[in-house]
Amino acid sequence: MAQETGAARRTPLNRERVLRAAVDLADRVGIEALSMRGLAQDLGVVPMALYKHVANKEQLLDGMVDVLVGEIDPPADGPDWKSAVRRRVLSARRALLGHPWASRVIETRTSPTPGVLAYLDSVIGMFRAGGLSADLTHHAMHALGSRIWGFTQELFPAPPATAADTSDTSEQAAALAALAAHYPHIAEIAAGRPHDGDSVVGAGCDDAFEFEFALDLLLDGVERLHQRGWTSVDRPQEERTW
Amino acid sequence: MAQETGAARRTPLNRERVLRAAVDLADRVGIEALSMRGLAQDLGVVPMALYKHVANKEQLLDGMVDVLVGEIDPPADGPDWKSAVRRRVLSARRALLGHPWASRVIETRTSPTPGVLAYLDSVIGMFRAGGLSADLTHHAMHALGSRIWGFTQELFPAPPATAADTSDTSEQAAALAALAAHYPHIAEIAAGRPHDGDSVVGAGCDDAFEFEFALDLLLDGVERLHQRGWTSVDRPQEERTW
DNA sequence: AGCAAGAGGTGTACGGCGTACACCTTCAGG
DNA sequence: CCTGAAGGTGTACGCCGTACACCTCTTGCT
């Protein structure tokens, strides 16, 4: 208690606290509004203080990714590689889903962080343990791409979004009609799904469904190739389809 | 010629020239180094002059995307929807491949540009013309995701990249050994492909192969679902795999 | 007890960015 | 000849990341 001279002493910063505060701030204000200055203010500290804990902003972003990736469940062995991988990827999805910026940040890292490498390594290991060849596993990983992280890669965040998030259905119908004039096929598809409304303004798609649909399409395809003993030299005969 | 008072009059800027110069500049210096000021300098003009032709930087980026998307070949009807879509997507790939920033810019657009909508609409139309239901087409589009643009979405741009682009194979072997200590499965796969070397430092993968592998996996999967008359209500029985 | 060292926090400053706003020039059409 | 609009300019503001010199505690050794 002799330590507590004057005002209560602030517990000192550390890398962990900085990273967690950064994740928090990005969740609140969006990744493009995340600044070293803003983060410092959140932590009640002067901007330059952060540089005692992270080398620069890029490394801060690296660290933020590792925080999220660290929350993915460890692999649990299932009956078969396919459902084991599936479960793991869905766990990644759970870990990253609340952080819409994660996808973009991961994709802009110029070199992978240790946590990222560890996760990728373990997923590869799951394929290999299931008996897939290194060759096929390699291509399967590429085919999954950023879907390994549980992202549905949106073509664009929202449809035109003509009128703001009005729940007036007649306005929505009007907007759809305008869209249909120029882009009839898009309109047809946008109209098809009945607008499940849990996400932001009228994305109109069940994100979880779309994700699992695509994931299963890929995993099933890989499984079929595996069963037929595929190797990359099989390729040429398919290549000349066009 | 009476016009040419004093120094040669500069032909006035227009939106088109601004956008093309921006694409050029981004190709040369990278998207993150593209600035309104630098672009203005390239065009021999003061920064604020650009704002007579584009509303702001976001709209500049929108326009740049539309320039590239406008270079995708129009649809050509083939024997079947699958090879028609395949050819179209590979055309998109050709159009965007020389602009490594395109993928990131497209993904950060907050609302789609007309050119983007037109392309998407036409691809949807190709599926529909092939007899696929609106339902299945919708999910197929989501499953393709940004692969519609011809991108292989890299998990990360390059492996750890320990020593710079040395062509010293013994150093590479050493780096690989170090990697293998912590991430044995990644090392195995990185070692597998014999390093085709046409791309930047040792990505070690044939990008075109990976892309077409994934594309065919998805298209074949969709075709199979189509043939068996799939609808989204088929789903629940699969959903409980885990 | 005295002190050196280092970890952590501060303050100032620089160069770059996007862009608001007021201004000037040029020129086509009435 | 005049007007008005289109296109280009110059200045200025507030934000950003971060280099660098400095201060202030805490800790451990003598």
Automatic annotation (TrEMBL), chains A, B:
Pfam families: TetR_C_1, TetR_N
HTH tetR-type domain residues: 12-72
The UniProt record lists the keyword Transcription regulation: yes
Alphabetized PROSITE patterns for the sequence: HTH_TETR_2 (PS50977)
Domain of life: Bacteria
DNA-binding region: 35-54
Keyword presence, tRNA processing: no
Gene3D superfamilies named in the record: Homeodomain-like (1.10.10.60), Tetracycline Repressor, domain 2 (1.10.357.10)
Keywords on record: DNA-binding, Repressor, Transcription, Transcription regulation
SUPFAM superfamilies (alphabetical): Homeodomain-like, Tetracyclin repressor-like, C-terminal domain
InterPro entries: Homeodomain-like_sf (IPR009057), HTH-type_TetR-like_transc_reg (IPR050109), HTH_TetR (IPR001647), Repressor_TetR_C (IPR004111), Tet_transcr_reg_TetR (IPR003012), Tet_transcr_reg_TetR-rel_C_sf (IPR036271)
Protein name: AcrR family transcriptional regulator
Protein source organism: Kitasatospora paracochleata
